[in-house]
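Sample pair:
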Amino acid sequence: MNVPQKPDRAGNAPLPPNPPEPALGRTHRWGLGAFFFAQAIFVLVSVTLAAALGSPDGMAMVLMLVLPTVLAGAVAVVITLVRGNGPRLDFGLEWHWSDVTTGLAIGGIGLVTTTIASMLWIRWMGPGDGQSTVSSLLDGVQLPPALAVVIFLHIWLVAPLCEELLYRGLLWGAMERLRWSQLNVFVLSTAVFAIGHLEPNRTALLLVIAIPIGVARMVTGRLTASVVAHQVNNFLPALGLLLISLGLLPT
């Protein structure tokens, strides 16, 4: 109960008590449906391009690799702007040196474990079954240098950002809105990341790849660290595909 205040000596009415300060932080209004919508955009665009382009080469191949991922990532950003507070607040997608260094450190550890796991996986499954969708698409294809560099930059830098916006952005935030524990959010987002690549033969390997990326998101609470960790993890595969598509390495 507010205690009534007496007028001051000049006879002026007392000022009303200060209103309470607004609560820090704002909640978003999107949930799991937002993630499924963005994922559906990725699948729909991928299937449409595959049906329209058939066996692509050159620019058509670049379009098939880049457009679905970039559109899905853009949809994730738009959802946060329309139904939330933007990617900076909703995802923690902002520049912090601590997040960058954490992402580099965890990503470096993940790169080692991923490389070992990939070598064991290929030895177990065989080169053909161990290939990713991108590797299969570029198998035996020699690209002009400019297009090869575009694919390299996409796999190394752009695709990790877009995938993080989906899995450890939209999906992670939707589960947090349901008040799931951070451990449950980490486990489920890691599983969905592995399954969502639609590569059944590599799902177990993708689980190994996703663990350090999810750890970076969990320990910092922000998306920047997981983006950096994902980009570190993708560097060697992207470099290998660059050299293969330029004809500098055998398939």
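Residues 15-25 have pLDDT under 50 and may be disordered.
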